[in-house]
Specification:
By secondary structure, the chain is an all-alpha fold. It has helices spanning 5-16, 19-24, 34-55, 65-88, 92-114, 127-142, 147-170, 180-209.
Length: 210
């Protein structure tokens, strides 16, 4: 899963429009990066956790093979994307913004697939939350993952999440109840975390200018 070699250097150069970066992005091959071992080890531990819980007979934990595959793909996607972000920029604010944004996106997908953000996981309007994430991803791609553009993309994602909540809630009036406050607060927290990611990217952009 490690992104190395000429392909990675060229992609980083395209993202930043910097030819020098293409020649310097590789660094020394085989250089140890402890955070990678910790990060991927944690991902593997998360994937094995529900399996261990099932073996221990924990109540409410009954994952199918498909559940493990989906969860593994989610973990791999987030881990791979963060590795790319680390290689794209050495700025700690950029890396922090990328890490926070990826974490929130992971949680939105996980919660929405597991129990549904509005009502239950069977509510078709919950698909709008996936659309909100795709809007943010499209914005990031359009801006070629530059710090300033990523800031705008994260803010757009935050707004799209709140819009998705409003539309989903309006179209499911029969599900109004005790969980309404929990849904609203949960969605708002997700949106605020995306706003925090945007703030970190904005800080990274200012650092590049200075």
């Amino acid at each position: 899963m490690t992104l190395t070699g000429t392909g990675c250097r060229v992609l980083a150069a395209i993202m930043h429009g910097d030819r020098d970066m293409a020649s310097n992005a590789g660094g020394q091959p085989g250089a140890g990066v402890p955070w990678r071992i910790v990060g991927w080890g944690f991902a593997v531990a998360l994937l094995l956790l529900p399996f261990a819980a099932m073996q221990a007979g924990a109540d409410g934990v009954d994952w199918s093979l498909g559940d493990f595959v989906v969860f593994g793909v989610m973990l791999g996607t987030v881990g791979g994307a963060f590795e790319l972000a680390v290689r794209v920029s050495g700025n700690w604010a950029y890396r922090g913004g990328a890490g926070l944004g990826l974490l929130v996106a992971f949680l939105v997908v996980w919660v929405n697939l597991a129990v549904g953000i509005v009502g239950s996981e069977h509510n078709p309007w919950n698909q709008l939350f996936f659309v909100a994430l795709l809007i943010g991803l499209a914005g990031a791609c359009i801006t070629r993952f530059r710090a300033r553009g990523m800031s705008v993309a994260m803010l757009t994602t935050a707004g799209a999440l709140m819009a998705a909540y409003g539309v989903a809630r309006i179209n499911r009036p029969e599900e109004f109840g005790a969980h309404l406050l929990v849904e609203l607060v949960g969605t708002s927290i997700f949106a605020l975390l995306f706003a925090g990611s945007a703030a970190l990217f904005r800080k990274a952009a200012r650092g590049q200018i200075s």
